[in-house]
Amino acid sequence: MFVDLPLEQLRAYRPERGEPDDFGAFWTATLDAARAAAAPPTFTPYHSGLSTVDVHDVTFSGFGGHPVKGWFLAPRGAAGSLPCVVEFVGYGGGRGLPLDWLAWSAAGYAHLVMDTRGQGSGGWLPGDTPDPEESGGPHSPGFMTRGVLDPHRYYYRRLFTDAVRAVETARAHPLVDATRVVAAGASQGGGIALAVGGLVDGLAAVLPDVPFLCHYRRATEITDKAPYYELTTYCKSHRDHVERVFDTLRYFDGVNFAAHATAPALFSVALMDDVCPPSTVYAAYNHWAAAKDIRVWSYNGHEGGQNVQRVEQIAFLRDLLKLP
Fold first, then answer.
1. pLDDT at position 124, please?
2. pLDDT less than 50: residues of the chain
3. Which residues bind substrate (predicted)?
4. Which residues are catalytic?
């Protein structure tokens, strides 16, 4: 069933933002520190058994200089100056295997898939990147409340920093045209793409697909599904921490990143999505500060458009990047 506002109200839904005064300074200092701690990335040829794609096992420096894994795929034998999609993974998943990520290289792109620190044991896509800086203090099972009383210790500070460094790693690769790099992902990956879109200048496009990590307080008020339910559970137990929780989350809200976007975006939303409710997606979409479009999947839940959305994304980028 439809789980949120009617579509005509969603299209106009543009809530006030609660961006902290030091939002820009917080992220500038965070990213500068990560760059200062970075080692050169490595791209090790990986024997995937695939005949049409070259695969490299990637290690790059993320938050705190921590090593982060990934895959780099490109059409077999490709020369330089390829457009590149940097893709982020949904909640609980890791980088999986190269076989899981063939669409973009088949479409002629270089493709960097970032592993998700500390995740990848959720039963679907395995991961290979630990989180060396696990925050102390009580938290709900999962990742949403790890370090949530302090923005400097919050889990998503580390993960969003990793994502920016993934884009910078892709841009430095000799096969990649640094002016045609795209940030993409679904669910948590879409929320990470929103953050990257607000933190990185000069992206060619951003593709947030049914994005998570947006408009947190409303999400906790209108859905009892995980992962937002992790916040609800924490606040249920720590009644005196509620405002501190949401003060921290202002630094990590896709709505606030959207207001700093400079690249065109193609969003998607599913009107029966009770995991990432439509109004939370439209809150980010309607604050997106650059050119934008959205695909609406009326009778879908959190699966969204799946490969139909991928077809839309390929067409969107073909027109935007003037590809054959």
1. 87
2. none
3. 91
4. 187, 273, 302
Total Cβ atoms within 10 A of residue 221: 12
Pairing of strands 53-61, 67-75: antiparallel
Give the span between the Cα atoms of 264 and 320, in whole angstroms.
9
Specify the 3-state DSSP secondary structure of 100. Answer: helix
Tens digit of pLDDT for each residue in 67-122? 999 999 999 999 889 999 999 999 999 999 999 999 999 999 999 999 999 999 98
Would you list the DSSP string of 260-284? T--S-EEEEEETT-SSS-HHHHHHH
| Residue type (1 letter), 179 | T
Q: What pairing do the DSSP bridges indicate for beta strands 176-186 and 265-270?
A: unpaired
d(CA 191, CA 268): 12
Q: Which helix (H) or strand (E) holds 16?
A: none
pLDDT at 136: 62
Q: HSE (CB half, 13 Å, CA atoms) of 40?
A: 4
Q: Which helix (H) or strand (E) holds 311?
A: helix 307-321
Q: Which residues pair with 61 in a beta bridge?
A: 67
Q: Please check whether residue 215 is in contact with residue 15, taking contact to mean a CB–CB distance below 8 angstroms.
A: yes
Rounded distance between C-alpha atoms, residue 290 and residue 5, angstroms: 25
Structural domains for the chain: 7-321 (3.40.50.1820)
**Beta-carbon count within 10 A of 198 CB:** 26
pTM for this predicted structure: 0.98
The pLDDT score that the predictor gives to residue 72 is 98
What distances in angstroms separate CA 49 from CA 18, 45, 178, 245, 292, one per listed residue? 49, 12, 29, 47, 38
Q: What is the pLDDT of residue 221?
A: 97
Give the Cα separation of 72 and 57 in Å (integer): 7
